[in-house]
Prior knowledge:
This protein is an all-alpha fold.
Amino acid sequence: xxxxxxxxxxxxxxxxxxxxxxxxxxxxxxxxxxxxxxxxxxxxxxxxxxxxxxxxxxxxxxxxxxxxxxxxxxxxxxxxxxxxxxxxxxxxxxxxxxxxxxxxxxxxxxxxxxxxxxxxxxxxxxxxxxxxxxxxxxxxxxxxxxxxxxxxxxxxxxxxxxxxxxxxxxxxxxxxxxxxxxxxxxxxxxxxxxxxxxxxxxxxxxxxxxxxxxxxxxxxxxxxxxxxxxxxxxxxxxxxxxxxxxxxxxxxxxxxxxxxxxxxxxxxxxxxxxxxxxxxxxxxxxxxxxxxxxxxxxxxxxxxxxxxxxxxxxxxxxxxxxxxxxxxxxxxxxxxxxxxxxxxxxxxxxxxxxxxxxxxxxxxxxxxxxxxxxxxxxxxxxxxxxxxxxxxxxxxxxxxxxxxxxxxxxxxxxxxxxxxxxxxx
Length: 425
């Protein structure tokens, strides 16, 4: 089992969990201990392990990432354009996801929240307390910005108020590069080392993901049968539609009206790259083919390609940001919560920041969604169930991520006066 790739281990664990949940139900015991209790323990232990990693992982990831960008003295005009495009494209992706999840409402069926079908544990009293907690999380747009600057960042992080920690980490990483070379390099090495340790710890925890997923899925199936798979399928369809809209409509409009190129011609040339990204589910593994195609087939200069694409593979995650937004609101809907504009704005803001900050870490989407849920005050019980459909969605997200990087490259090249093989006649 351990010789298989992680996604195959998780797939096998899901199938085993379905069988185990059906067979044991909620009452079958072994040596006086209910199987349902064992499933619950396995799932909760895995979620606790993820929670344990969140603060140091996010903090070190953002600080080291921002320091790496801020310390590059050669960014100049090209760097500013690149960062600007990636921020805009990620924001547009998040907004597409926001519209899709609010229109399709995958967390609601026949006018009722699907939390019971997903076996999210709460009663009326707990739900009322949860509603109060979420309302306190963001009552207005002004409140969101006040929470970005907490009086005690350590206390904010300890209480799960991640927005302040994210903002502090962004500032720390930026100013770390402005205190002199000797001290700056010392701090950069320090935070890079912490980030490497946290990556190693995260990889170790993710080795137990099949067991955690087994516990979470078996617990749900034991309590609700196959009812949970309906809402998860609806979530899958919602994310799929949103990703297709962003890739084929949003980015095509940017290509045509900002870049002045033919979206159809560009897409034809990039199709082998997108298929490779889909099959590998890795932006980094696809990067050499992406660079070769954009340079030789599309006709973008080597200077632009070699700068914009590697930076995009590191920080630009349109598909991931879109998925984070949809998944977080799906869980809120499943609890029966009607999020206000301010609360949804906070999701958009944190999804934008975390899509950059956690792009290069394993289980990036899980970590980012857990941060978003913490910001709006929701529990993480539904997080593990997202892994049921995550593999295929991860492949789709990666294809969109890579395509967005490529779109950014040609749009920036055109803004620099370059001519390409797909320019509009």
